[in-house]
Amino acid sequence: MMSRSVSQTVLVHLVIFIYLTDSLLASSSGAGEPKVRCKEAEKQAWLNIKEELHDKYSLLSSWGKEEEKRECCEWIGVGCDNNSGHVTKLDLSFPTNFGRDHDDWPLEGNISSSLVDLHLLNYLDVSNIYFYGNSIPSFIGTLSRLRYLNLSSTSLVGEIPSKLAKLSTLQFLYLTYNWHLNIKKLKWILRLSSFQLLDLSFTNMSLANDWVFVVNNLPHLLTNLLLRDCNLPDMVPKSSLSLVNSSTVLVVLDLSLNHLSASIFQLLFNYNRSLVVYLDLSYNNFKGPIPKAFKNMAVLTYLHLSASHFQG
Ligand SMILES: *[C@@H]1O[C@H](CO)[C@@H](O)[C@H](O)[C@H]1NC(C)=O
Ligand SMILES: *[C@@H]1O[C@H](CO)[C@@H](O)[C@H](O)[C@H]1NC(C)=O
Ligand SMILES: *[C@@H]1O[C@H](CO)[C@@H](O)[C@H](O)[C@H]1NC(C)=O
Ligand SMILES: *[C@@H]1O[C@H](CO)[C@@H](O)[C@H](O)[C@H]1NC(C)=O
Ligand SMILES: *[C@@H]1O[C@H](CO)[C@@H](O)[C@H](O)[C@H]1NC(C)=O
Ligand SMILES: *[C@@H]1O[C@H](CO)[C@@H](O)[C@H](O)[C@H]1NC(C)=O
């Protein structure tokens, strides 16, 4: 009798145990609630990134350690691959007029080196974050999957790290509105064979003497090159220019606001490819008549020459 009731009790406990275990497992993986996709290590990297940002408007309030925030794939600005759960996208560009004042930055702080733990990141937009006087960290060069990088309006200073040229899959790069970013050399872009768009407008390229050479030898996929108000040095070294033969078309070339003189036409008319669909040369320093050769640029559909000081 005694032993039977003990074994009955054990059985009952066992059944209860199995039932509890089952329902625990169910709640964490199956039915009801969806499975957490995001990776624990990557979540920690995000939290480190947040830690180095001052977030006075609580824009990143969805980012946290709390139980209800455990699915980091649902945090604002974060995008995960649906299958693997790895983070592939970070978009933290909030409008600058977010606050009341004109010069109010939505987020400010430092670029965390924890970014390197997000190996599969292919899209990174941290534009409009005020990174004090940070320079572009060279560890950006380890984000080898990047296809899109937007560092516009971030108050970055210093020079472009040469490691940026390691981003062999990079297609779109925006570094605009960083007045104190010194771009002394442009040749590194020739190594970025996937490049489609490069916007360096409103940076400081006053020492980039190789820019003409680079424009003359652009990577084949590059269709948009924007160098507006970059303080480009006005010089066209005659000897290094050869006729550019390419079957690709440069769709947009913006050289406006650069105080360039007429010697630049030597570069432009050197393209056999009648290349440019949109050419903006406004606000430069051309003297003399408008060159007739423009009419040979067969594909040109938009030519902006206002305030360029042409005569005749
Ligand atoms: C960014 O780094 C600077 C210099 O190390 C430090 O003074 C500042 O507090 C940091 N900002 C944040 C938000 O961590
Ligand atoms: C991932 O899943 C979300 C939600 O189901 C869906 O909106 C999105 O389009 C998916 N993304 C891809 C790349 O399949
Ligand atoms: C890059 O960021 C700037 C500033 O937020 C924005 O104006 C621009 O549209 C962004 N570029 C793209 C292609 O989204
Ligand atoms: C641009 O760079 C040149 C050369 O380093 C420097 O003299 C000039 O002050 C810089 N301009 C700005 C706006 O930083
Ligand atoms: C383009 O073709 C012309 C004429 O065939 C040739 O003289 C020139 O060297 C070529 N330029 C390049 C960059 O290959
Ligand atoms: C430019 O030169 C290349 C190579 O010689 C040729 O294939 C292409 O058709 C030329 N383009 C134009 C617009 O003449």
UniProtKB/TrEMBL annotation:
Keywords linked to the UniProt accession? Glycoprotein, Leucine-rich repeat, Membrane, Receptor, Repeat, Signal, Transmembrane, Transmembrane helix
Pfam families with a match to the protein in the record: LRR_1, LRRNT_2
**What is the membrane topology here?**
Single-pass type I membrane protein
Leucine-rich repeat-containing N-terminal plant-type domain boundaries: 41-81
Under the heading SUPFAM superfamilies, the entry gives:
L domain-like
Location in the cell reads: Membrane
Work out whether the entry's keyword set contains Transmembrane helix: yes
GO CC annotation, single: membrane
Which superkingdom is the protein from?
Eukaryota
Question: Where is the secretion signal located?
Answer: 1-26
Q: Which InterPro entries match?
A: Leu-rich_rpt, LRR_dom_sf, LRR_N_plant-typ, RLP23-like
What name does this protein carry? LRR domain containing protein
Q: Which species does the entry assign this protein to?
A: Parasponia andersonii (Sponia andersonii)
The upper taxonomy is: Eukaryota, Viridiplantae, Streptophyta, Embryophyta, Tracheophyta
